Amino acid sequence: xxxxxxxxxxxxxxxxxxxxxxxxxxxxxxxxxxxxxxxxxxxxxxxxxxxxxxxxxxxxxxxxxxxxxxxxxxxxxxxxxxxxxxxxxxxxxxxxxxxxxxxxxxxxxxxxxxxxxxxxxxxxxxxxxxxxxxxxxxxxxxxxxxxxxxxxxxxxxxxxxxxxxxxxxxxxxxxxxxxxxxxxxxxxxxxxxxxxxxxxxxxxxxxxxxxxxxxxxxxxxxxxxxxxxxxxxxxxxxxxxxxxxxxxxxxxxxxxxxxxxxxxxxxxxxxxxxxxxxxxxxxxxxxxxxxxxxxxxxxxxxxxxxxxxxxxxxxxxxxxxxxxxxxxxxxxxxxxxxxxxxxxxxxxxxxxxxxxxxxxxxxxxxxxxxxxxxxxxxxxxxxxxxxxxxxxxxxxxxxxxxxxxxxxxxxxxxxxxxxxxxxxxxxxxxxxxxxxxxxxxxxxxxxxxxxxxxxxxxxxxxxxxxxxxxxxxxxxxxxxxxxxxxxxxxxxxxxxxxxxxxxxxxxxxxxxxxxxxxxxxxxxxxxxxxx
Length: 531
Description:
Largest sheet: 5 strands, antiparallel
Radius of gyration: 24 Å
CATH architecture of the largest domain: 7 Propeller
């Protein structure tokens, strides 16, 4: 069987293979992850998911409970605390349609699902952490264990729960933890690379597990206090077998300049965490003052970082820095020169990149701009897209080329003139473009604040089902079978939680619909399995 690979690109990931017939799109037919993006003032998240041919699998931010937030400059990384919803998006037709809903909230409250993808058997795999608290005598900090959950692709039923454990002696007492996986699946095993680090405690752990989640091998790489993993979200898989990480060392600190004497390095590792190459990029960055740098894109030829520098106070500079695997600087894109500091890019041919970003313009609308950048040549303007939604700007999260070369845009609207504290004004939008001229063929706006949820436990269920509402509910609960026939109808009054007897139902897949008697609240249809 041919090996299949999946790589992860952290915040603001865009994997678009674009629109021109002369481009070789076959080199981009790898599995592509769908990642999340959020600003600190919004709730428009794009949670970890998976892009495979004509389907997108993603978990939306329909959750019960709180989020765990980790502030990263102007962005937030949010993990689901109490599970989530997986929605199967059908892109085969001419419209963007929700095809199915899978409820994965069998996940316990002390678990954080971080990554989701499809394994070789076609099942949904959710990898995450189980949070543990150390005793005060051990420092009182948190350590996290790896958890793997495997769900049936067709039914969403949990098939396997795996809890592989290293020896207790391998646990590291770290108050800060970053867990972003890099997956390489083949017929025998897959690997999860986990990064730890901040404030001098800099470890990288690599696990290799078999198909059943058994721990086969573990590697640890430690960087002493001279090196730190910059801003934590800096690890990325490039090609099929190489890991790249941005690190920095600091030697002296100047109170007058309020800055460290930094040295910045990109280090390359193999899958067993053996160092392959290291190159100093300090001179490329002019990074003597506050700045941040984050991985934006990588493939089998290039590594691209987004670089934000502040040489003078509040004089921000935004660049894309493009390197090859030998550490040779190839080119840069000054994003302020083209007016789109909030942007991303992807490679569309041998030495060309597509750049898409939002332009901050005065007026009622903020358009999207598309540019093409060839290595060694000036950037070229392609097209401006302006969606006429008054007082809102369209922010890109990710873009994809579908099998028919149509483009799927995944983003969200943000208000221009409204208060940024009003979170209800942010909502995602999915748009499909014709590849030839990027004309819109269909769009799907999703107001994540309008739809309420029903939480079902246990799932699968045998004789009794507990329905837990995220809001007080008065109305009818109707259970439908897979053919859409009503098999149970129950009236509730001011209920927050309700037990339902399902012992008389045959085994199978069922759907629960809540119908509000006042017509003021709409609940998403929930699915459960009777066994």
